[in-house]
Every structure is written in C-alpha cells, then in structure tokens.
Amino acid sequence: MIRKLKKAVGSRFNFTLKKKINGKAFRIPIVGGLGGAMRHDYEPWMLKTLREIELGCEGAFLDVGVNLGQTLLAAKSTRPDWDYIGFEPNPFCVFYVMKLIEANDLEPCMVFPFGISNSTGAMDLRLNNITGGEGSIVAGFRGEDEYKRQIKVPILGADALPEELERRRFGLVKVDVEGGELEVFQSLQPLLERDRPVIITELLPVYDPETERGRFRQSRQDQLLGIVEELGYRIVRLHLDGSRELLEGIAPHGEIRLSNYLFARAEQVEQFAS
What we know:
The protein is of the alpha/beta class. It has a single domain, classed as Vaccinia Virus protein VP39 (Rossmann fold), CATH 3.40.50.150. Helix content is 30%, strand content 26%. It contains 7 helices and 13 strands. The protein has helices at 2-12, 44-53, 70-78, 91-104, 181-195, 212-230, 269-273, and strands at 15-21, 24-30, 60-64, 84-87, 109-112, 115-116, 121-127, 149-156, 170-175, 198-202, 233-238, 244-247, 260-265. Strand 3 (60-64), helix 3 and strand 4 form a beta-alpha-beta unit. Helix 2 (44-53) packs parallel to helix 3 (70-78) and helix 5 (181-195) runs parallel beside helix 6 (212-230).
C-alpha cells in the first residue's frame, strides 16, 4: 500500500531532492514519475574508479549509454569541468537527463538522443520498464520473454556520428549498452585508434558457451576482445568493492558481479590495475 502511494505521488507531482556525491551537492529532479532511482547510490565502484583514474585520463569523457545520468553525476563530482558527451537512445531517459543537466547547470555537457551501432536507422529497444538499465537493441541477447515492451529508437552508425566527436580528443570512454558493446566498439574504432583513451565497459556473462545463446554471446565477446587486442590494450576487471584485477583474458562465467572491465594501453595499465 505504501509503495503504491509513493508511486502515485511521484507520478503526479514534480519536485527536487538534494544528494551529495563525492562530497558535492546535486539536485535530483523527480519529474513525471522519473528519477526515483537517482535517489540511491548507484554503482559505488564506478565513482571509486573515476576518482582514482581521472588524472590519467586527459581529454573529454565519452559516455555511450547515459541512462538516467548516473555516470554523468559521478564524472562531474570527480571533475566538475570534465567535457562530457553522452549518447542515449531511450527518449524517456533523454528527457530526464536534460532535466538533470538543467537542474545542476552541468557544463560542459552534451547529450545526443541516439544510440550507437554499426548502421544508421531505427531499431527496437527492448525494455522491462521505461527507464530501466536493462534495455537492449540486440535481438537474441536475452530471451524475448524477459522484456515487457519495446520501442523504436534512433541509432547512428560510424558514418553518421556527430562532428563533435571529431573536434575533441577523448581521455575516457564508457560503454554500457546491455549487449550492444560490440557494435559500439566497431563504430568507434577509428576514434579509439586516434585517441587511445581508457575504456570502461560492461560485458555481460556468456553463462553456458554450450548453449545457442551462450555461443552467440561468446562470439560477440571474442570479436570485441579482438578489437581490444588490436589496440594493444590490456584487460582489468573492476570488482564491486572497488578493487581491480589484471587479466590475461575473459573466460566464460555466469557471475553478473564480474561484468565490469577497464581496458587500457599496455604501457599504462599497471597504474590502473592496482
């Protein structure tokens, strides 16, 4: 009953909460029922990682998969003047993030209302709830029965990426697109080769490589790690407690808690692996 009442109030009234991240105060808008998840601490490991690596990430911050702006606030709490560019195809998330940016006067900051993949067009975004972080444009990555709805969203391929990416040099790239990381890496490969940024990414578990879906996930992971190897990057696993572990590869596993990684140039990886 109480949960239903809170949901009803949140969907009918707009208001702003205050929240401290990394010792800095932010305003968290609750708008049309959106933004409730922003009240909670989100991925403390990400905040800890950004604090500890940001000095080695000279250049702009590219965030592919903005969702509600969780990483945006973590970045701005770490380096307020960090030049931030984000991509997010979910229109409900984009609406909320623009309110978040306005409420906190976050500059420099630019969010493009598109996803990134290997071709330009409209694609189906599969969702459980309208702003959930589990949304994916990759058919077959999860069972279709795991989603409650889908919407068409705009996607940019490599040949349609905005010129703002050409005008900047990036020191850090974050990719979290629920299974679509391979196509993002493929489209951004020229940028990655040019700027050689540190990369933080989620790679969801393969689970069982003997199943059809497991083979599909394993193939995609192998292709992505091939790009990482071409770049001359090493792999660091980011643990939920904030610790980091240098890896020689990523073996198949079924642990969602082991899904976060940092890729860095071989000559700099030691400073990020400890």
